[in-house]
Write a structure and sequence with these properties.
- By secondary structure, the protein is α+β, with helices and mostly antiparallel strands.
- Helix content is 30%, strand content 23%.
- The protein has 15 helices and 22 strands.
- A hairpin with a 4-residue loop joins strand 17 and strand 18.
- The longest helix is centred in the last third of the chain and has 16 residues.
- It is globular and about 75 Å long.
- The chain binds FE2/S2 (inorganic) cluster and fe (ii) ion.
- The site of fe (ii) ion (FE2) has 6 residues, from helix 7.
Length: 439
């Protein structure tokens, strides 16, 4: 079913969303075309692609892609689909190679995606040209990077990457600056988890400050029942993280939510609250701070380390936590299926224990055994069940805080305990889905 501009506009009001936005295949297909088929999507980090031959498997929307570093040092973002009979070309998540060889009939491609060899070449017609574009891997027309974060777009036109990121560049800057030498290394391993619900539910939850005390109450209870017993393996970090979801409504009101144009958003001031305050004695932190002060000077180091922006959502597929050096990529698979890939960074030049803390944070938050992520995934699936089983008159609400939002300097809004980030996501969504014709 083709969706007209009027049909799309009728699905979202300033304070409500129609259920089909989360469940309908035609809506999902149009999102892949008009959002994921056009905007800048994060695809890889430069630390994964330092040497010629390095490659990383990634996704652009629902399509499987490869990012390669070729022998000329150039980055290529190529569709991971053999041009012979369409088989997935590469099944590894990352590695190093000079040629990519298909596992079906052995067609062989170079790192720029050009076909370089076919078995039994003499059987092909005289006009068969290995170097014709038809036989080359499809290429994302635009690739750019910002401080080591590589993005690609399936559209030839559109805003520059810097304009697309806008104020979210600050989240990337802060993460990179937390290395005393301004360099990050992405962890080799990743957690890959799927949940059975729509991709937008992940983003709506990212800066929702009301749900943690409800959805995560079981792990809060577990943390409360255990005394603080820091060990060399944990340092009390897990307990502190679980308890972090126990903020009272009053405390969550102290955390401001910044909702920006383009659907981006973040939480501001989470560490101002007492539960996540730093410990009195923390030798690892002291050593790291000393290294940072030496690298940047006292004032700048303090600015970098005290920037308090949490869950930085770069709409529509990336989430960054600069304080704990985390990265999360969100890939739509189907209207009711979403893949989340989570990793963390090593800050080059920082004490190794800082990396251990990032790994622990990643494990606590994003592993299959996480006591936090499982709660969220379960609630997304409940929403999906409820919305899938509803009649066509079912609308959901996103009005909390609508009358309290204050303008944020430079665009967007700021206020506490609000659903403004969700409203901002839908404003961007409508703009993309109607090609700007919604206004
Ligand atoms: S499908 Fe790849 S070589 Fe045949
Ligand atoms: Fe949550």
């Amino acid at each position: 079913m083709a969706l007209s501009v009027d049909t799309i506009k009728a699905l979202v009001t300033p304070s409500t969303v129609h259920r089909s936005v989360y469940t309908d295949q035609a809506v999902f297909d149009l999102e892949m075309e008009r959002i994921f088929g056009k905007v800048w999507l994060y695809v890889a980090h430069e630390s994964q692609l330092r040497k010629a031959g390095d490659f990383v498997r990634t996704r652009l929307g629902t399509y499987d892609y490869l990012v390669t570093r070729d022998e000329h040092g150039q980055l290529n973002v190529l569709q991971n689909r053999c041009t012979h009979r369409g088989a997935t070309l590469c099944n590894e998540h990352q590695g190093n190679t000079s040629r990519m060889v298909c596992g079906y009939h052995q067609w062989m491609f170079d790192l720029q995606g050009t076909l370089r060899g076919v078995p039994h070449r003499q059987s092909y017609p005289a006009g068969f040209d290995m170097e014709s574009p038809r036989n080359s891997l499809a290429r994302a027309p635009r690739v750019d990077s910002y401080r080591g974060f590589i993005f690609a777009s399936l559209s030839e036109n559109g805003p520059s990457l810097a304009d697309f990121l806008g104020p979210m560049r600050g989240a990337i800057d802060n993460l990179v600056d937390r290395s005393p030498v301004g360099q990050l290394e992405l962890s080799d391993t990743a957690f890959r988890l799927e949940f059975k619900a729509n991709w937008k539910m992940h983003h709506e939850n990212a800066n929702d400050t009301i749900h943690p005390g409800v959805v995560h109450s079981s792990s809060v209870m577990t943390a409360r029942q255990h005394q603080a017993e820091p060990t060399p393996f944990d340092d009390g970090q897990t307990r502190e993280m679980l308890q972090g979801n126990a903020f009272t409504k009053k405390e969550w009101e102290g955390i401001e939510l910044v909702a920006l144009p383009g659907g981006h958003s973040y939480m501001d001031g989470i560490y101002r609250s007492r539960l996540l305050a730093r410990k009195e004695s923390d030798p690892v932190r002291d050593e790291y701070e000393a290294i940072m002060k030496q690298a940047y000077g006292e004032e700048r180091a303090s600015q970098i380390l005290n920037l308090d922006r949490f869950n930085n959502l770069v709409y529509p597929n990336l989430s960054i936590n600069a304080q704990y050096h985390q990265l999360r990529m969100v890939y739509p698979v189907a209207p009711d299926r979403t893949l989340v890939v989570s990793r963390c960074f090593r800050l080059v030049g920082a004490p190794e224990q800082i990396y251990h803390r990032a790994v622990r944070f990643l494990t606590n938050l994003s592993s299959p055994a996480s006591m936090i992520y499982g709660d969220d995934a379960a609630i997304f699936e409940r929403c999906n069940t409820g919305l899938s089983g509803s009649d066509d008159e079912a609308w959901i609400d996103m009005s909390r805080g609508a009358d309290l939002d204050k303008p944020f300097p430079g665009g967007g809004t700021i206020s506490a305990a609000t659903e403004a980030p969700i409203r901002s996501q839908f404003k961007a969504w409508l703009g993309y889905m109607t090609d700007g014709a919604h206004a």
